[in-house]
Amino acid sequence: MLPKFDPTDQKACLSLLEDLTTNVKQIQDSILEAILSRNARTEYVSGFLNGQVDKQSFKNNVPVVTYEDIRPFIDRIANGEPSDLICDRPISVLLTSSGTSGGVPKLIPLTTEDLEQRMSFSSLYAPLLNKHIDGLSEGKSLIFYFVTRESKTANGLMVRTMVTTFLKSVKPTSSFLWDRLHISPHVITTCADTTQSMYCQLLCGLLERDNVARLGAPFASSFLKVIKFLEDHWPEFCSNIRTGHLSDWITDPQCVSGIGKFLTAPDPELASLIEQECSQTSWEAIVRRLWPKAKCIETIITGTMAQYIPLLEFYSGGLPLTSSFYGSSECFMGVNFNPLCKPCDVSYTIISCMGYFEFLEVEKDHQEAGHDPTAKPVVVDLVDVKIGHDYEPVVTTFSGLYRYRVGDILRATGFYNNAPHFRFVGRQKVVLSIDMDKTYEEDLLKAVTNAKRLLEPHDLMLMDFTSRVDSSSFPGHYVLYWELGSKVKDSKLEPNSDVMEECCFTVEESLDAVYRKGRKNDKNIGPLEIKVVKPGAFDKLMNFFLSRGSSVSQYKTPRSVTIEEAWKILEANVESEFFSRKIPSWELHELHSGR
């Protein structure tokens, strides 16, 4: 467990981080011992260990599992059975993960004690950030958070996202501490109306522009949604500031009371300044121009979020992009000890007290090392990972997960003291599949990254994308939906057909040898297609998933869409279509080299 500390004592916090990354083996052994001794009598643990709580019995007898393996236990708790099926402490909330199981969000158990640990974990990072970025503590944070609708299980257990749980765990008596650190009042960030909340958080940020030391959002995609909202509504913001009157459509009591402390009088000078910046022909560096004292943008930019880095760099005007944490609904795991590194170099050091961590080695072709479906997977301890190898984290937590496969792929890049740090590679997830070919999320992201570079000379940017398999004709083929944007404001989006066809070919050339062989020799895969959709199409896609219970704060554009209602939204917004006109190359030896 994370020891108690004073988050305002920078020296003590940095010393604690040094200790947690030095005494890794001892801390990990004590964490596992504490988890097993606490939970030895639960139905799940006792079924495998029968009272034995030593480390070797744990490794020999407790299986490595996926969500589907433990789902029956979670469903039983959701339906009213006691928490001691899996945990000795009461489960206080079931977190809705951004991942799904059979199209339904996963439900991850969390105790109040574990929640408090995660909140402490978050505050531990601030002193590290202050150490690396001068002047960060002289202002406040404009971090955009949004709650999402919550529900209850049949027995009254709350079902929430992690962000909503975090925000609603701030007690009214301590909300003044939140307001000391954040520009947007806590009362506004917990407004249930996302649109009104976003509007008022932005308005607070504009009114307090000289007091903003950093900006951000949980994910890069959600921060860009906020920038797009600002682009669509800046004249209204200027009107509110110029007149000192809040727009009539803002009616939520929390938003009205929260903004009332900021919008106290007309400020035509500020309104004119914002208007001057926002009305320029390009929105390049708009963040730095509107918030001149900001030191960084803090948001997750690894994994699937890496594709948004060029857009963030375009809007940020050179502000550092800091990717602070690595974690999931299942467990908070690591921090970035070098927050000012290049986005491509971000690695997360595992903090040893947040759970018991093991790692399942996977090969570069995404298979488990020494893959044998009949054999037990081989896992190694945190201190035994090897630099340059790829792993899937396997976590054991105080909230009732035991040897649970998280599903991420991490590459070990080194050690900070005795704690390994990892680069997030992607999800171990097949996003497209035709015949013998399986395209993983990581490989699709790399292919699209290579292709979108062809847009840069034409002042075009890839705003977002997803994909699907079109099997309506033979042979089936991959379809990519691209939403484009221009670096020049109000210019027409007319992508050149030669450029777009070359983008199709570049994606194909970047995919693996199995795909390229299927295209060239076997002819069981048709030419790849890119469909350019209207601006705002991906907002409509997001709204569809939000209507199904997703959260704005945690929403990630799916890299493939299989739900018919979802891809029909995109089809209804297609403006132009392009096919690959060339056949990708392949060599026989590539199939054996794993490329």
Describe this structure in words.
37% of the residues lie in helices and 22% in strands. It has 595 residues and is an alpha+beta fold. The strands form 5 sheets. Strands 9, 10, 11, 12, 13, 14, 15, 16 and 17 form a 9-stranded antiparallel β-sheet that branches. Strands 2-1-5-4 form a 4-stranded mixed β-sheet. It is globular, with a radius of gyration of 25 Å.
Spans of at least 5 consecutive residues whose pLDDT stays below 50 are 591-595
Average pLDDT level? 90
Please state roughly what percent of the residues sit in beta strands, choosing from under 5%, 5-15%, 15-25%, 25-35%, 35-45% or over 45%.
15-25%
How many DSSP helices? 22
Shape: globular
Q: Over all CA atoms, what is the radius of gyration?
A: 25 Å
Largest sheet: 9 strands, antiparallel
Total beta-strand segments: 23
Summary tags:
single chain; about 600 residues; alpha+beta; nine-stranded antiparallel sheet; four-stranded mixed sheet; 23 strands; globular; disordered C terminus; GH3_C; ligase; GH3_M; acid-amino acid ligase activity; GH3
Spell out the blueprint of helices and strands.
Elements: H1 10-22, H2 24-39, H3 43-49, H4 55-61, H5 67-78, E1 91-101, E2 104-111, H6 112-124, H7 126-132, E3 140-143, E4 151-152, E5 158-160, H8 162-168, H9 175-181, H10 186-189, H11 194-207, E6 212-219, H12 220-243, H13 253-259, H14 268-278, H15 286-290, E7 296-300, H16 309-316, E8 321-322, E9 325-327, E10 332-335, E11 348-350, E12 356-362, E13 379-381, E14 390-396, E15 404-405, E16 408-416, E17 419-427, E18 430-434, E19 437-440, H17 441-452, E20 460-470, E21 477-486, H18 497-510, H19 513-520, E22 529-533, H20 537-546, H21 564-571, E23 574-579, H22 588-593
Parallel strand pairs: 1-5, 3-6, 6-7, 7-8, 21-22
Antiparallel strand pairs: 1-2, 4-5, 9-10, 10-11, 11-17, 12-13, 12-14, 14-15, 14-16, 16-17, 18-19, 20-21, 22-23
Helix pairs in contact: 1-7, 11-12, 12-14, 17-18, 20-21
